[in-house]
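Note to self: keep these together.
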Amino acid sequence: MTNKGLMEELLKWKNSAKKVEDRVLSERLGLMFMEIARKITNHSFFRNYSQWEKEDMQIYAHEKLISGLKNYNFKFKNPFAYFS
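Structure:
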């Protein structure tokens, strides 16, 4: 996953419909969000957490990434920094 690839998927999401409520999240963008959440929970800060707790954090993070998607400002070209 690269910033360029993430930005391309975000632009596809933005151009999928006029209203935010009608926009469709692509499978690839969802997988990118899952990858961001997985990478963060595999950090050494979380080494003493059980796998179940990490999965629970990943699900919560994925939900927050999707809900924060509508707030992303497209004039900034570093979406990875915003979503991580």
